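R.M. (postdoc): so does anyone remember the format we settled on? I'll just put the structure tokens first.
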């Protein structure tokens, strides 16, 4: 980081990404049976494993984003997770209704864009306003 403002901008980016995942994780917990049913309807394999993993990735990942802990590996995990949810959950190529297909295309590419944000976070690290930043020597890498 060369400018003091960079860490503040990275913090805002982490929070913006975290809000989506925290909300999703909490909603999955509150409506767990419905979430499992949705995964079954999409033909997701090993729903008994996928449902708790998805819920944990979203809820815990969101919390870790906010506090800035282990951001580089977390960002890679979140990028892969977000692309996987795009492919499994927003499979517009299997939708025949034009209005629904349009919605699915938007959500698919939104997820791809979010994954891109996670890849940028992987490159930048958590910034100084984070647990990673507090644990690393000034100017060091936040791994």
């Amino acid at each position: 980081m060369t400018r003091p403002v960079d860490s503040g901008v990275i913090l805002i980016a982490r929070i913006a990404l975290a809000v989506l995942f925290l909300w999703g994780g909490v909603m999955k917990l509150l409506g767990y049976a419905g979430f499992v049913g949705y995964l079954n309807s999409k033909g997701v394999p090993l729903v008994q494993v996928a449902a708790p993993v998805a819920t944990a990735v979203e809820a815990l990942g969101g919390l870790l984003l906010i506090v800035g802990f282990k951001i580089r590996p977390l960002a890679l995990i979140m990028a892969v997770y977000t692309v996987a949810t795009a492919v499994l959950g927003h499979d517009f190529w299997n939708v025949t209704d034009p209005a629904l297909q349009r919605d699915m295309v938007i959500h698919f590419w939104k997820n791809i864009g979010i994954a891109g944000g996670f890849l940028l976070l992987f490159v930048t690290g958590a910034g100084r306003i984070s647990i990673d930043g507090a644990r690393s020597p000034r100017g060091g890498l936040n791994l």
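R.M.: ...and that's the designed sequence above, right after the tokens. Also worth knowing: Residues 72 and 122 are 4 Å apart (CA to CA). The radius of gyration is 17 Å.
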